[in-house]
Every structure is written in structure tokens, then in C-alpha cells.
Amino acid sequence: MKNQLEISGVKEECGVFGIYDIDGKDVAPSVYYGLCSLQHRGQESCGIVVSDTKGPRGNISYHKDLGLVGEVFKEENLSRLHGDLGIGHVRYSTTGASTRENAQPLVLNYIKGTLALAHNGNLVNAEQLKEELVYGGAIFHTTTDSEMIAYFIARERVHTASVEEAVLRTARKIKGAYGLVIMSPRKLVAVRDPFGLKPLCLGKRDNAYVVASESCALSAVGAELIRDIEPGEMITVTAEGIRSNKELQQKERAHCIFEYIYFARLDSRMDGVKVYDARIRAGRALAKAYPAKADMVTGVPESGLTAARGYAMEAGLPFEAAFYKNSYIGRTFIKPTQQERESSVRLKLNVLESVVKDKRIVLVDDSIVRGTTMANLIQMLKGAGAKEVHVRISAPPFLYPCYYGTDVPSNDQLIASSHTEEEIRQMIGADSLGYMKIEDLQTMVGDMGICKACFDNRYPIDPGK
Amino acid sequence: MKNQLEISGVKEECGVFGIYDIDGKDVAPSVYYGLCSLQHRGQESCGIVVSDTKGPRGNISYHKDLGLVGEVFKEENLSRLHGDLGIGHVRYSTTGASTRENAQPLVLNYIKGTLALAHNGNLVNAEQLKEELVYGGAIFHTTTDSEMIAYFIARERVHTASVEEAVLRTARKIKGAYGLVIMSPRKLVAVRDPFGLKPLCLGKRDNAYVVASESCALSAVGAELIRDIEPGEMITVTAEGIRSNKELQQKERAHCIFEYIYFARLDSRMDGVKVYDARIRAGRALAKAYPAKADMVTGVPESGLTAARGYAMEAGLPFEAAFYKNSYIGRTFIKPTQQERESSVRLKLNVLESVVKDKRIVLVDDSIVRGTTMANLIQMLKGAGAKEVHVRISAPPFLYPCYYGTDVPSNDQLIASSHTEEEIRQMIGADSLGYMKIEDLQTMVGDMGICKACFDNRYPIDPGK
Amino acid sequence: MKNQLEISGVKEECGVFGIYDIDGKDVAPSVYYGLCSLQHRGQESCGIVVSDTKGPRGNISYHKDLGLVGEVFKEENLSRLHGDLGIGHVRYSTTGASTRENAQPLVLNYIKGTLALAHNGNLVNAEQLKEELVYGGAIFHTTTDSEMIAYFIARERVHTASVEEAVLRTARKIKGAYGLVIMSPRKLVAVRDPFGLKPLCLGKRDNAYVVASESCALSAVGAELIRDIEPGEMITVTAEGIRSNKELQQKERAHCIFEYIYFARLDSRMDGVKVYDARIRAGRALAKAYPAKADMVTGVPESGLTAARGYAMEAGLPFEAAFYKNSYIGRTFIKPTQQERESSVRLKLNVLESVVKDKRIVLVDDSIVRGTTMANLIQMLKGAGAKEVHVRISAPPFLYPCYYGTDVPSNDQLIASSHTEEEIRQMIGADSLGYMKIEDLQTMVGDMGICKACFDNRYPIDPGK
Amino acid sequence: MKNQLEISGVKEECGVFGIYDIDGKDVAPSVYYGLCSLQHRGQESCGIVVSDTKGPRGNISYHKDLGLVGEVFKEENLSRLHGDLGIGHVRYSTTGASTRENAQPLVLNYIKGTLALAHNGNLVNAEQLKEELVYGGAIFHTTTDSEMIAYFIARERVHTASVEEAVLRTARKIKGAYGLVIMSPRKLVAVRDPFGLKPLCLGKRDNAYVVASESCALSAVGAELIRDIEPGEMITVTAEGIRSNKELQQKERAHCIFEYIYFARLDSRMDGVKVYDARIRAGRALAKAYPAKADMVTGVPESGLTAARGYAMEAGLPFEAAFYKNSYIGRTFIKPTQQERESSVRLKLNVLESVVKDKRIVLVDDSIVRGTTMANLIQMLKGAGAKEVHVRISAPPFLYPCYYGTDVPSNDQLIASSHTEEEIRQMIGADSLGYMKIEDLQTMVGDMGICKACFDNRYPIDPGK
Q: Glutamine amidotransferase type-2 domain: from which residue to which, for each copy (chains A, B, C, D) (predicted)?
């Protein structure tokens, strides 16, 4: 009976943004710029919902569609979104399928009028929750966990005095990772999962409060970072100001380490740690664990560049940019087929011969998936005259799935799941190879509680599988 | 408390289509051609959902969007819709607002997997039903009655053995007009409201059963009309064949007369009456009630042409086509502004001088809304040499709103609601004017039970206003 | 050497429009509405060029693209076209190929600044002219005759005092059919070929002069038809008014009969003959030549309707509309494949059973091309109960190509080129069949000089083939 | 009389590509990838023309439009371009106006069939040439110099034995900068202006010859750089192989220094000098001329990064990446208005606080235009804790216009044309400011002849102004 209720494989790796300008200014442009700054967290679809809190009840307008923020929003549709309260969402593309229906924020009518919700994360008890709902006669328009969260809020709202109370009750039922931003016509509510698996931070600009998945979105809109929203904390912003509720808090924390390794933007700061610093420390740790006799250090753009700098600092070697990256090769690029002589890697990246000729090179990246790209890059470096290429990976190999909404490559895609390091080294043609040690993950971020289940199989929340 | 729950003003005047090919052939092309034939019932949006009944559970695919059938569906997206069971919908455009979310068929996940629903009609107890649902914690993605129907089906399905049983229980709760086509992964269910306000008919092509709002859609796909689905009847088609359930039937009937006057396609047959014949009879009745000393009869294309023929037959006068209609003036046409010398009417219709010169003309149409178009046409006819123009309207003046989903013009748009016939005659510049008498509406369709509330304020179902 | 210079097979069947408002009002909307009225003459591409004659030299703006007038022009691009002098063009689609470059009006820079040109027709000495030009070093951007005309005008303009003089000299060189509208920054020039093969007429609205391929475009913009531009006449409109030049005139005339049979709009008047009247006379002539024992006459929409009326008048039989035509089946419609049960004809046209049941029917159309559509229609009529179907064609069979730019079906497409009338009758399943007699073509239009070369192989201008 | 012939202000800064695969393989994908690699040279429009040299005469197909290569070309249109010989073009956007007509390659019919032409550069005698042509009766479809070149080739072709000969004769008439790629149905011709103002290089891949504006395009398609095409050299590729003609050569050379400063891709090599090396040398020269007491060096992404590295090397200071660049901020991005609090600069670039805090920083870029962006960046650096910011510019101030097709900012846009260095320093808020000395331009590229007229007003070819 259980398996009839399908849970979509669509990953919930996304970015959320919310703003309430108590002075009553239009916020749609700020949501737009905030989403532009969170675009790296999701490129499949995006959306903005605003409410004119001074207007009559339910004066809500929105626009969402498949595409990048800069493609979906144009002067003409952005200028139609009037209101001093707004939320936005960018969604990660993991499949090519058309999923316009899954675009967020969700906008729903319920007992109290309209509710909008933007969610980053994944629930581990989604199947049980869905079962509970469908046995109560629920219908779903999307295949997202987010709609289930919305449902529980709506159900609880029937018996509660406020939307916050309904959100709190819902938060007690759902298990998993979430950074949630919820908007009723006159209230902005943001809540973060008790383990702090997903990031969420709070900022201020004049008399406007801003919440966002990452602090870079605050900078983008000219807001100051006040602090991270704490794990298990719920923030409510109304015309009267801001309130915090920490009923859901617990002691144990498990911040997703993958945000620091790869996902978050280099200029963001999360839970007190700058992403840049964490990556520098990752490179330093690599250099200590796997030194190399080399003339220079370089990184694969953009994913390996910062760890490469850290490696270079620790090793006392010069850091050099060995590759030119063609920024015009975008999503709609037609990839060369097998028959054609051009290479996708070479079209995106080209070696700067002057930099690498006759050099022994340490090449840093954050992961090796199939190994083909890395093999190509090593070949290009050697073709341009590099004498040796020592590959260093600024994370351990992924070996276990993520149940909290981060899209780590699956086992069958990963060369590391079926080959030894020495086999991989030979396959990619490197002169040496070193992966970061699991114990150094903690080094990256200091004494923060982290989730590194994808490396060590220790899940802070039982995924029930 | 009550008014917080908004009911959208979007009219539910639409067309529905369903087909189950028991021999297992792909039905998406037939749904496409069926919808092309029902396009006159709705031009705002359209959609097709299909299920591969032989495939694994829930193997459902769909596509829907704003636009005409020929705009929304292209080889590339139509060819991706595989399945032997399918339903489709065309929706009427009453507002310019973007309502992509309201496009049908609705596709939902519920306790039994997937459910798709296409609805033509409007409920009169929608507010009460919505209140009941939201107090149970329901959330709504659309502003349509149709989503409420889907909700009740889902709720009932929890406690019932089959989708038909859930549909029946739902039908007992909802009051209003509906032609409903519902699809579960392996079942096609069609149900018609007990008064028969909305049309729905049944056809067959080899081993495939077809349901549609109008018989013209059966012809289009090469199916034979078996019969109308009876008011209050529910038809179920499965791999085993077809079943009928008449538990909801009642004695009283109230077929919408507006379908015969204007809305249905000329070549359709509904509840035993050919639309063409009804319009001919309307014209004949007009001629008896309001004869005219004239040389010829003509009609406003396309709405007045058939009644004009009927008038001509009864009056023993020649019927002539006095206007050329430019079929390229479509939806995206830029209308002349007040400043410009061109006239919208003249761009769409031009008089054939040879036909009208020196003639006394009877000009038939099915309604006069603001009167400006009619005044223009009369001016054009006289400008081309017509000596007299006697206007005859093949329906009484609309005076009361329709609560069952038909988009009759509202009072403030209607010249007839604030002027006498003589005033109207003068305003449009006609030599005489006659509206069909209310008693002749019955003449059009024989002894069938009809709803003519928009003319006489007698509503078969209490609208509760 | 000769054959290296390719002449495109693209047919020059098009519509042209020009207007100069001496009072200085913007004309782009009028060009737009004029082109909407000429849309039947060409659906492939369209364009508008305007000049602000009061502005600085060469203040010309334009927009053109593939598509219908209503698709190519939107408020946003139309409102950017400012000027009191403008010309426009609609082009006929004979191939599916992308020919954006061939869209007209042509807009060119030449010795005197800018020149725009819109051309309806085809030259028979295009190859010789092109040879002359290329041997002088000319380059061509399009594959149209029109560019050659532009070239000669530019060449002549070097040595002449005015653009009219250059146009006249060019007209002496080119042989063939043309309705030409030419615009320099402050002059509108219109010229018609000496035989009058292509139509061109002149109208006036207040202080604005209008030229157009057909008079229906004058009506559309509220202009009065002054008269046809005479064969061999050149009209020039400037701020000072209008001038006529008849130097090119000759005695012999050869107005294209195909305009009256099919191509021109029913409400146009050309060279003194109303198109409607000509088609009525065609039907009458058919009825005299091929009477039938029948109960009613009908026509294939829209091409056969008016001749059918003429037949009915002459025969004293009632004319009836036997078919319902689905006006939503447009250009982007996906046609049924062989495998599918639906029929393209049935999707476009459906029989009104009440009209045809138990009737002996005369069915009129203007041509039979492959015969498949006609066979389908006869089958549909008989399927709906028609007892007999007598087919009458309101033109003789096309047997010879048109070299003057009219797209008559080619021999290999035409059933008539390889079968006797009796064979065709059997193939289409008609009870009798009659084509108009060649001598009756003259009957249609009175004593006007006509070109009927496609029927009788007598070409007024030697096509040189 | 002269000024009536307008020469468009559209700049001819572009990229060209050509390939002939003598083994007969389809080249369209290679042209596509080549253009992707040249996209930095022009983002307004692009086009590809191919010829099937084994097919019948004139078997040419093409596609071009406004937009980036990845937007204009899709699988469906690229796969329709069959041929073993092809050329392509990317055009620089200097105006927002729609200039679809100006998109290249130009495709023309002329005496010998079809000719396609792609041009990078600008002529200084365009007005005289145009006058000569229009007095011969020429007509122009575009407002580009390129069409004039095509015209002269066509004219000369009438009297010459081959297209090469016609190109040579044309080259003798035109004065200015050009990298030209010309294609007749079975020949690829490439020619470079005698001063070598514009770049053009030659490569080989198996049995295919490739020409391109930059060597990076050769790498992209897997071709080896053979050598630069020499100034004044013409290369012809046919089925028989490759020929060189140096009749146009002269002694004096004047390679555009702006290519090395900014325009060319970092991984290209031009006239024997690697662009990367030139920029490193620029940075070194700056460091010698304007040393600074600083803790680190950084560059404005991407324009200042490499010179910053050179500065750091010479100064013995660490190079650091101080900014995060948001690569999703593209062309369609809606820029903040004055009213909005967000800043365009901050949305594109954000400071990495960890890198700059408490540091004395050398900030390198290649130019200062209005100064507002630089002021913003300095403010951002100081806001993030930088103690001092010393600005170094890796080129002298632009003071004179470029007549050869490079889009250098005009005087009224340039802060340097109306302010002293000290004024600029104060306006941007820098602690010190240094521009590269004019004499160091030569240092960048060794003893190559260069054009640096935009800095020193010494034009190698008299612009005639």
C-alpha cells in the first residue's frame, strides 16, 4: 500500500529570499536582485510573490516560470508586482523534464486567504506525511515536499490563532532539512530546521527585514547581515517589527558541510564561518596531508580555485590561473557529438601555455565524478608543456546518498565508488592523487556541528531507508 | 467570515473531451482534433492528459498552456503524449489576466495515485463547499470550482471502493451545472448534472469510446454519436467496456437554451435537437412574430446567418450574404483608437454593394449588446444603398445573470436593460426592430425542458443570491 | 553561361499599399489596416516602411518579418513607425523555406538616400535583366524580381532629374506584370504594368492619397475609391498633390482573369467590375451551360460560395450552406497522418445534415486540383443523406503555367491535365461534372481585355520559354 | 552633395572564422564552435554560411540573426547546414537598435553565383567608395562597410579570371583595417589589411584549413595554429590545397595594441605574441613605473586580472582574488534605477572580506571610463576593511578616436579627457593612481610595429578627418 505514493526524485536544493519593508516601499526589485545573487543555488525555475500589506486583503501578485532569473523576469512583468512584502525562490535543475508546476514559491488559497511558501530542503518523513494527508482526502498539484508543508500549515491554521502557531505545529511534524520562508498577506515567517542542515540568515536595510539562504543575497540588496537564523528558530516580521521563537531548538547541530565545500557562494558567511576561509583551510589541509614537489598550484575554474589558493599558501608555492574559461558557453550550448573533433572541455576551458610550460603542477578540484573531465584537463596541461600534474581533491569521495536535499552524485556516476585511488590516478593520467581526509572536514569549519553523512554514512536524522 | 473566501469571476464556459481506446492505440491526436472542434467553446487555454493504461501505475503525461489548441500543441509536444486513455479541455477567455494556473485538465496526486479532471460548468454552492473544505485544512492552487470538485472526489475516495463511487458521492454534494470528464490511470468517467444544464454526449469508433461536450467533436474524430449522456447519468469506461449509472437522475430537466441560440456549433446535435434546426426555427418564429416588407434577408456573420435563413424561408424572401468577413482579423489584431479613421467593424466586415443596393433588408442577429456594432452595420448597409433595414434578433433580451457558467453579457453592458425597444431602434438607426418572444424559445427546441433564466429570471437551481 | 543566373521560383503574388497624408498625420496604422485587408493576397511575410516627410532627410523607419500582419505587427513595433508617408506589402507563401530576406518592402540606400519598394507581379525578362546587371557588377541580397527593379531605378536615377523619371525609364526596360509602389523620403510613386495584368487602384481620404492592390483596402481605411490606376499609368503623390503620367500606355489590355475567379476579395472592385458580380455571372454561365435536376445548390466554403449563388439564381433553385467551416483550423494545425482516423477535410468542414438529407445537390467550387478533397466532400454529403451530387466548377481547367506571378497549380498537381472529365467524375464520385467553358470567362467581366493564358495558352507578353 | 551619403556609426569590431575540409566533412559544427570561441569579439549578431562544394553549383545554406551564438543556433537549424566549406561571423553590439539586416556573413548573388563575406574592421575611405558606387547606380541593403567591399569584388569579378583576382583588386581600392573571409561556392579566401591592423590567423586540422580572427578559435576546433596570415597576405583554399599571395604587402606594420590590452582572448597568440604574456608585461611595466607600498595586488575581474598578476610578480607582492563575480548577471539583467538601493556593481562583484581586511591593496584595471565603477569598487574594498587602495591602469588614457573599427570610449564618456590624474584620483577615492606610460605599450609586445593612435594621435592610415 505504501509504495503507491510516489515521492519525486526532484532534489530540493534551492535558494529562498524574503523581505518586508515596514516603510511600505515596493520590494519586488530587491527580491529580484536577491534571487540573482542566489542563482547558483538553482537554475531550473524561479518565482517572486509580493503582497501589498497596506492594500485590501489578499492583494497578492506573483510570477514564476522555468528559466534563470534574468530570463523569467523582464521590466514588464517585474513592474507589475507591487507590494512591500515579498518572497522569492530559485530551484535547482536535476532533470530536463518540464516541471513548471513545481516552480516555487507555492501560492495557495486556504482558510485565511492566501499563503505563499518557498522551501529549500528535503523531508525524510515525506512518505508518512503524504500518506497521512491523502488518507484525509488531500490532493496534490506538485510532486514537492513543499506542498506537504503547506498542507500541514493550512490544516493547523484551522485550529490556531496565528500563522506562526500553525507553522510551529507543522515544524514539529516534519523531519528533515529546511530553510522555509512563508508569507501571508501581512506577515513574513522564516523557519530553519532544528539541526541547521540548511542555511538561513537575517539582515536589515533601513526599516526592512530580509531573510535569505545566504548572506551574499543580503549584500546584493544593500542589507547588513544581522545574524544567522538559529537552527530551530522561527522569525516573524510584521508591521510591528520582528519576533523570534526558539521553541523548536535542540542542542545537536548538523550544518551541511557540502555548502562550504562547493554549494554556497564564495562571498557568503554561514553560521559564523566565511565560505572563502573554509575553502582556504580545505586547501591548506590538503597540502599538509598530500604535499607535492611542484612549481605551482592551480585550480579547476571555478570549483577548485579557492582550495588551490589555500594549498599554495600552505605549500609556499605560487598560485597561478592556468586556464582561460569561456563564459559564453551556457546552458543552451550544443555539445559536440562523438563524431566531432571538438571537445566540450576544451571549448569551456583552454590552457594558458605561458603559465604551465615546463612546470610541475598541483591541480586542485573539489571532486572527481566520472574522471573524464579531469583526464581531459591533465591531457591539456601536459599538451601545453606541463611536466607533472598532481591532482588534489578538496573533499573526500562521496560514498553515501544525501537524504536532506543536496544533489550529491549517485554511486553509479562516481568513479570513486568502484575504483581504488591508484586506479583512478592511472585512469586520469595524474602523477599523484590525494583526496581530503574525512577528519579534515571538521578543520574547514572549526568546532561547528556538521553533517558529513555523504562521506561517513552517519545521518543526523534517520532517513528511514 | 464568509466573504474572505473569494470565488473567482472566471466563467466556466468550456469544452471537454475524453476517449478510451480499448484496443490500446494512442489517443492524443484524437484528443487534439476533438479539442480543435470544440475550440469555439473556449479560446483562453487548453490541455491534454493521457494515460498508458497498459503501462506501470501512474504513467500519465500531459501538456497545457494559455492559447489556442493550434498554438499550444505542436508536433513535438503532442508526440510525447503516449497513452490509450486521454482527456482534454478548452477554456473560455473572459479576462485578459494570466491564468495559466487555471488551465485544465487539472492533474492531481491523491490517495489512489493520479486523477485528471476536465470540467464545463459552474457550481452555485461553491462558497459553502469551499468553506467546508478550508475548515478541513484544504489548500487551493487555482480559483476554479473544478478544484473543489476534485477535492471532494479525493476525500470520498478514501472511504469508497472505486473512483465512480467517489464521483457519485461528490455529485450529490455539488449543486450547479457540470459536464465532467474524469480520468484515473485506467478509467474514464463522465458525468452530467441532473438538470442537463451542460451538454455531454457519447460516441464510439471501433473499440474506442468517446465523450465530448458536443457531437461535432465526435464527427471530427470519426466516431459515431451513440446518444447524449443523460442528465444525472454517469458513464464509466474501463478495459472491460462501458457502464452506466443513473442514480443521480431526476425528472425535471433544464437544458441551457443559450447553447442552441449561440454557443453550440451549428453542426452539433444536443439532446435530440440539431442546433441548425433550432436556429432555423428561431428565424421562422421571428418571421411570424415580426414580418417585414422587404426584398431580402441577411444575417450578421456568423452569429445571425442561420436564423436569417429561417426567417427567409418563413417569409418567402431571398436570403443573401450581404457582408464579406475578413477571417484574418484575429485575437492579436490591434484595434483602431478613437483618433484613427478606420473602424473595427469595417475592418472585419464589409458590405457587398451589389447585394444590398436599393434593397429593403431584414438583418438578423442573435443579440444586441451595446448597440454600437449594429448601428455601424446599418450605417454601412445604407451607405451601400440599402433603402430600409429591419433588424430582427433571434433571442429575447438578456435581463438576468447566469449562475451556471454561461457568459451572458452583464446588465451594465446591455443596451436592452436601460432602454425601450423603440429607443434602441432609434439609437441603432433601424427602420424596425423585433426581438424574439420568450415563448418562442420553447418553439426552437420542441418539448424539451429548458433553462431560460437569463430571459425570465426563473432559475431551475436556486443560485442562493 | 546563361543558366548560371538563377531566377527564384518564388511567386510574386502579393498585395501592395501606399499612403501619403499631406496633412502630416501618422500613416502607419492605416498601412497596417490596409495590409490586414490585403492579407488574402499573401500570408508568408509582410512589412511596413514609413517616412516622416517633414523631418530631416532620410528619416525612414520600417519593420518586416515572416508571418501574418497580426503576428508581425504589435503595438510596440507599430507605434515606433512615425511618418506621414508609408508603403506596405504582403507576400504569398508558396514554399515552406525561410525567406526572411525576401520580405518586402525592400529598403535600400542609393544615390539619393533611401528608396523603398513594394512589388506585386512577375517579370518575364528577369533573366536578361539580371544578366545585364551582374555584368555591370551588381550584387543581389534577395532572389526576387523586385530587387532588379530597384536596381534599375537606382541606375537611372544617377542620370535623371527625379525618381519618377527613373521609374519611367525602368518601366520601359522591364517586361511583365507589376503593381509597384515606390517611396522616396518625400514622394509616393505607383505604377501599373501596361497590360494591366496586375491590379492597382487609387483612393482618397480627406487630404491623404491612397494606392492599393484592391479597393477593399481603401474601404478598410475609410478612403473613397477614386478610380483604378490605368494600365501603363504612373501616379506620383508629393506635398504639392497628385500627378499622373501615361507615357507607358498602350491600347491592348490583359487583366488577369484569375483575380476575378479566385484571388481578389469578394468586396473589391477592379477595372470597373465588382468581383462579386463577376462570380455571380460565372455561376449563372455554369448553370446555363450545365443545368442539373437538383433540389438545391451549395458551394465549397469559401471559394465556391458566390458562384454557387449565381448558379442558384440562374437555375431558380434554393442556395443553401451545406457545410460548417471550423475557422480555428489555421496554418499551424497538425494534419492527421495516414495512420490516424481523423480526416483533414472533415476537421475543417462538416456537413449540416438537416440541409442535405434526401436532397439532389449541385456543388460548386472554383477548381479541382488533386480531386481528393472534392471526393471527400461528396462522400460526406452522401454520408449525410444527399441523393445526388452534381459538381460544377466555376473556371475551366488550368492547363498552362502563369509567367506573370500568379500561383496556378502546376500540371503534375492537376488531375485535369491527365484525365478526361468523365474519368474525373468517376474518381470523385460525382453524379455529373461540368467545368466552365473558356468562352464564358469573358462573360464574367464584360468586354474588358483579359489574360486567360493559363486556360488557353495565349500569352499577352511573350514569356520567352 | 557629399553628406547625403551616410556612413553608419555601427562599429565593425567583430570576429571572423572560415574552414574548408578538403576531405568533405560537414563543417557547420566547427564554425559554430569557432564562433563560440570568438564570442567575446561580438555579441550583437552572428551567422554561419556553408557550401557543399561537391554538390551542384550554388548549393549554399545559411542562418543568421541577432543574439549570441548559443541563442541563434540550435540543433534544428545547425543540423540543416550541410557543406564542407563554411564561414562565420560574430558582430559587436554598440547600439540597441535592431540591425538584423546588418548581420553577417553577407550572402549575395553576383555574376558568378553566390558570394559570402565576413568582415572585421573599418574602412577610412568608405565615403569616397560609397560615392563612387552610388554614382554607378549601386543600391545598399545594409549600412556596413562590408557591403561596399562585396560590391567592389562583384564589379571586379566581371573583368577578372578568378575571385582572388577580384579580391586583390578590391583590396587595392579600400583603405583601412580588415580581416576578411570570403567564400565562393568552392573557394575560401582570407585577406588581411597591409598594416595588419586587424588580426587573422591560419590553422590546420587533418585535411582541413581554418582561418580565424584569433588562435583561440583554432584550439576550440582542434586545429593547430600554422601561423598568422601576414599583413597584406591573401590565402586561398580550394580542393587542390592552399595558396598564398603577398602582392599587397608593404614594409610598415601597425598591429592594433588594443587587442593585447583588452580585446583579444587571454589564451590567443597574435603575430607571435601571446596575449597573456603581453598583459603580464603590462603589469610588470606598471609596477616598475608606479610602485606602491602594499600588502597585495588584485585586479578587476576579468579585465584587470592578468596585468595585476604581472604587477604582483614584478613587485614581489602576493596576487589575490579580492572579488567574487556573479556570472549569472547577463545581458538581459534589469539594472537598478536610481531609486533602488541595490548597486549594479555590487550585484556583479562582491568583495571577499577575508582577503582584503586590513590590507594595503594595489587594484589593477585596463581603463577608467567614467570613474563611477572604480569609485564603487574602492568604496567596497574600504568598506570590507582595506586600509589603502592604490589604483594602477594597464594602459594610457584613451584620448583620440579609433577610425579602424575598434570601439574605444569617446571623449565625452572619458573622465581622463577633462580631468587631471590627481582630480581623477580624488574622484574615485584612491590613495594613489598610475596610468601606464605610452612608451611602455611597446614593451608589452616587443619590437612589433603597433598602432597606438588612440593614445598618441599618430594614425598609420590617414583617416581623412
A: 14-240
Residue in the structure block whose three cell numbers are 471502493? B161
**Which residues in chain A show pLDDT less than 70?**
1-12, 57-58, 93-99
Measured between beta carbons, the chain C residues lying within 8 angstroms of B265 are: 324
* Same domain flag for D97 and D233: yes
pLDDT of residue D166: 96
Contact A224, A203 (CB under 8 A): yes
B147-176: average pLDDT: 94
- In sequence order, the β-bridge partners of residue B115 are B108
Task: Read off φ and ψ for residue D295, nearest 5 degrees.
Answer: -100, -20
DSSP secondary structure string, B203-236?
EEETTEEEEESSHHHHHHTTPEEEEEPPTT-EEE
What local confidence, expressed as pLDDT, does residue D272 receive? Answer: 96
Establish if C4 belongs to a structural domain: no
CA distances A359 to A269, A312, A351, Å, are: 35, 15, 13
Please check whether residue B266 lies inside any domain of the structure. no
Distance separating alpha carbons of residues B344 and B333, to the nearest angstrom: 10
Cβ atoms of B297 and B323 within 8 Å: the answer is no
DSSP summary character for residue D371: S
Secondary structure of residue B453 in the 3-state scheme: helix
User: In total, how many domains does chain C have?
Assistant: 2
Q: For the residues D183-197, what does the mean pLDDT come to?
A: 97
Q: Average pLDDT of chain B?
A: 91
Do B351 and B227 belong together in one domain? no
Q: Are A323 and A234 members of one domain?
A: no
Give the separation between CA C79 and CA C81, rounded to whole angstroms: 5
Task: Give backbone dihedrals phi and psi of D128, rounded to 5 degrees, phi first.
Answer: -60, -45
Q: Are residues D215 and D298 in the same domain?
A: no
The minimal CB distance from D111 to the residues C134, C147, C151 is found for C134
Q: How confident is the model at residue B93 (pLDDT cuts 50, 70, 90)?
A: low
Q: DSSP label at C109?
A: E
**A342 inside 8 A of chain D by CB:** yes
C-beta separation of D103 from D67 below 8 A: no
Query: In chain B, which residues have their Cβ closer than 8 Å to the Cβ of C342?
Result: 29-30, 33, 220-222
Q: Is residue A205 part of a domain?
A: yes
Contact C156 D150 (CB under 8 A): no
Instruction: Work out the pLDDT band at D9, boundaries 50, 70, 90.
Output: very low
Please check whether residues D233 and D319 belong to one and the same domain. Answer: no
pLDDT digits (tens, 9 = 90+) for A124-168: 998 899 999 989 888 988 878 889 999 999 999 999 999 999 999
Asked if D309 and D212 sit in the same domain, the reply is: no
Residues with Cβ within 8 Å of C158's Cβ and at least 6 positions away in sequence, in order, are: C111, D134, D135, D136, D137
Q: In this structure, what CATH number is given to the domain that contains residue D350?
A: 3.40.50.2020
Domain residues for B428? 274-447
Is residue A77 within 8 angstroms of chain B, CB to CB?
A: no
Record the cell numbers describing residue A150, joined without a space.
Answer: 503547506
The answer to whether A189 and A163 have CB atoms below 8 angstroms apart is yes
Instruction: Judge: D222–A36 Cβ closer than 8 Å, yes or no.
Output: no
Query: Which candidate, B124, D134, B265, A178, places its Cα nearest to that of C327?
Result: B265
For A300, the grid coordinates are 579547476
* Percent of chain D topping pLDDT 70: 95
Asked if A350 and A392 sit in the same domain, the reply is yes
Residues of C that are catalytic: 14
Spell out the residues 6+ positions from residue C151 whose beta carbon is closer than 8 angstroms to its own.
C133, C138, D137, D139
Helix, strand, coil proportions of chain D in percent (round to 5)?
A: 30, 25, 45
Question: In one letter, which amino acid is C236?
Answer: T
Residue with cell 501505475: B57
- Assess whether D311 and D362 both reside in one domain: yes
Lowest-confidence segment of A391-395, B307-311, B361-365, D3-7 by average pLDDT = D3-7
Q: What does the pLDDT read at residue C11? A: 46
